[in-house]
Specification:
By secondary structure, the chain is an alpha/beta fold. Helices cover about 40% and strands about 20% of the residues. The protein has 2 domains: about 270 residues, 3-Layer(aba) Sandwich (Rossmann fold), CATH 3.40.50.10680; about 30 residues, no CATH class. The radius of gyration is 18 Å and the shape is globular. Bound molecules: guanosine-5'-diphosphate (GDP). Guanosine-5'-diphosphate (GDP) binds next to helix 1 and helix 2. The site of guanosine-5'-diphosphate has 24 residues, from helix 1 and helix 2.
Length: about 300
């Protein structure tokens, strides 16, 4: 079975990792959100792309789900001592990624080519694609005005109430070479359990049209997020956060939806959206959970 997965950072990376345990490299392409990318301390940083690559490469910090395992923090502590900005935590190994990426971008290489080379260096065999080579910037419309995504997410720790989102540059952004082809080749597109508003919507806006069965895994379990502000965003936008809200979010493109056992009471309402459902355990604490959920998802796709 050939799958193209759409992923943000932590939640997306976990299911992508599970899928990569089962599918051969030529059968899995992961298209990753770059709306969170930003420039900081002179470096070009791609948080979601790096989270997915570090996870697939076995380099991720298992406690945080982002950043590198066995990390040291000398550079950022010394930046802080000098009075520089240290609110975005960057480890020493991680900084090497951003430095080398920035150097190559300045030479005129594309983000997709750089990502391909980095994946090779990290021993990642499955294809990881940034959604676009042109910059798309997620802007958060909040009660305190419009904020750049990382300003909202990391610096302000998601405190300002959100009113909406804007993806600066999305109209002009084309998907990277290989993204549409991967979707055309795929038996199905899997939307990983990532933040629908700020991780998946930017990818869908860039891709524009998907003529394949689309299946999404809910990032909301029992009305809460496992991590991050998705549930808080739903609430602030006046929508009760739930698996049902996520299914409604994607309803125009959805063929199948995977919700957690904790939300089984919502299954019928989701079915009423004309969507096939799978109720299973969707919490991925360990690699075994990731692989088990990936197996369930693939089996579900096979049955559609
Ligand atoms: P970010 O860009 O790093 O915030 O990452 P994502 O957008 O990919 O992931 C954030 C979403 O993943 C949140 O809404 C979480 O609830 C969800 N998530 C994280 N871990 C899990 C998990 O184990 N299972 C499920 N179903 N969702 C998860």
């Amino acid at each position: 079975m050939k799958i193209t997965a759409l992923a943000g950072g932590v939640g997306g990376a976990k299911l992508a990792h599970g899928l990569a345990q089962i599918l051969a490299p030529e059968d899995l392409t992961i298209i990753v959100n770059t709306g969170d990318d930003f420039e900081h301390l002179g470096m070009y940083i791609c948080p979601d792309l790096d989270t997915v690559c570090y996870t697939l490469g076995g380099l991720a910090n298992p406690e945080t789900g982002w950043g590198r395992v066995g990390e040291s923090w000398n550079t950022i502590s010394n930046v802080e001592k000098l009075g520089g900005p240290a609110w975005f935590r960057l480890g020493d190994q991680d900084i090497a990624t951003h430095l080398e990426r920035t150097r190559r971008l300045k030479e005129g290489q594309s983000l997709s080519q750089i990502t391909k080379d980095f994946c090779k260096a990290w021993g990642i065999q499955h294809t990881v694609l940034p959604m676009s080579d042109s910059p798309v910037r997620t802007m958060v419309d909040s009660e305190e005005g419009e904020l750049a995504f990382q300003e909202y997410f990391v610096h302000r720790q998601c405190a300002p109430k959100v009113k909406g989102f804007r993806f600066d540059g999305v109209e002009a952004a084309e998907p990277v070479v290989g993204a549409k082809e991967a979707i055309d080749r795929a038996d199905a597109v899997v939307i990983c359990p990532s933040n629908p508003w700020v991780s998946i919507d930017p990818i869908l806006r860039v891709i524009k049209k998907i003529d394949k069965p689309v299946l999404a895994v809910s990032p909301i379990i029992g009305g809460k997020t496992v991590k991050g502000p998705a549930a808080k965003m739903y609430e602030e936008l006046g929508i009760e956060p739930s698996s049902l809200a996520v299914a409604r979010h994607y309803r125009t493109i959805l063929t199948g939806f995977v919700l957690d056992n904790a939300d089984s009471a919502m299954e019928n309402e989701i079915k009423n959206l004309n969507v096939k459902t799978l109720v299973t355990d969707t919490l991925m604490n360990h690699l075994t959970d990731r692989t088990r959920l990936a197996k369930d998802v693939l089996h579900f796709i096979g049955s559609l």
